[in-house]
Amino acid sequence: MLDIKFLRTNPDIVKENIKKKFQFEKIELVDKVIELDKEYRDAKNRADELRGQRNSISKQIGMFMAKGQKDDAENAKQQVKDINGELLALEVKETELEAEVRKIMLVIPNIIDDSVPIGKDDSENVEIEKFGEPFVPDFEVPYHVDIMESLNGVDLDSARKTSGNGFYYLSGDIARLHSAILSYARDFMIDRGFTYYIPPFMIRSEVVTGVMSFAEMENMMYKIEGEDLYLIGTSEHSMIGKFIDSIIPEEELPKTLTSYSPCFRKEVGAHGIEERGVYRIHQFEKQEMIVVCKPEDSKAWYDKLWQNSVDFFRSLDIPVRTLECCSGDLADLKVKSCDVEAWSPRQKKYFEVGSCSNLGDAQARRLGIRIKGKDGNYFAHTLNNTVVAPPRMLIAFLENNLNEDGSVNIPEPLRMYMGGKSKIVK
RNA sequence: GGAGAGGUAGCGAAGCGGUCAUAACGCGGCGGUCUUGAAAACCGUUUGAGGUCAAACUCACAAGGGUUCGAAUCCCUUCCUCUCCGCCA
To answer: Which of A142, A228, A240, A258 gives the lowest tally of CB atoms within 10 Å of its CB?
Structure first.
């Protein structure tokens, strides 16, 4: 969400930015919101004036009453009534215009970073860097569910019976591996100075509408029946929600947090749930990182964040690459973002395992996350990134660590979480 | 789930229809006086949002409605916290 003052003084920059994002239909919104904003401020100014008059006359009434000057009091009462008559209509207008302005401001995209490549959609995202040699073994790498099943590690049939498509039972060493990866990810981030959090897994609608658009809410969030609660789609929701309407002392920054949570997603829309597998599912678990920092530090943190994910995957011998989101594929709130993709020796291509985003001050402005500085308060910058989401990352893990005999190697860092095992065998 | 008590600045807390709500009083923070330095004492300062060159002014007393010329104060709805009881990992 942009600062309306910025939009007012720099409408051309805002329009240019919209063009870069190929959202031509939104260009007219800029002039429209400027006009509505002017109307709103005019209404507000007039209303403020009337409210001021009412306040001072009401005060006088009190004084008249105390002195027993009944006629003067009655007179003044009539004056206030007249003022209230005009004010009533004005206040309705004021409220409506304010809501309308905000509604438009919410869909005007954030100014993207100069470094963001220009492109229409995800097909024009740009590979930035590869880490590790993408390796294809001599033998054929089976589909990940087949690998898991051969190790008695997954039961999708039972999950369909109890919960439907998009759920899974993990079992035995595969389930243990899943937990081991999360534990390792947690410690990995703690070692890098992040504070570990386990947040609420349900949040109020108030928080939901703060952290996402209505469309996202419809397509992602599960509602608890009879309660004003939603299952979180990612721990970012509760972790950022924690800072809503707060003022953070400058010296407490940066906040570097890493949180674990299960994530629940309806996955309504474009991709939907695949028939067989754990790539896109209704429920998964994720270790996340969140940074709240000063504006001047967010660029540096962005680079540190995606680097953390790359280092994590590399420590498990999984080749990865970073893929930068082009302007058209970048969500409206984001200044810059990239996906971390893992190598799939079976598909012989990279696939998304995490996403790193710098939201600039847009999310903070929307949610009222401010920093208390020496010369006044200002909006913080917020960033988030996936450390690892095990069910999906298991695909990369199993494919890259599979041996021809069907056993799976456990890289050294995970062994202490796997009871010392160096291999999972049939 | 039942019964009671509450929600006011960073914290504690007064105010319970107007003339002490920017908000008393206390603590904490910041600046200063005094001191070789510190403590103590004393003086000053210390909410946020909008608005303005700066003011004036407006808004916010958990949230949302209502009554009133005027609401922190009265009424209604919702949320939250605490204590006790019940239930329960």
So the answer is: A228
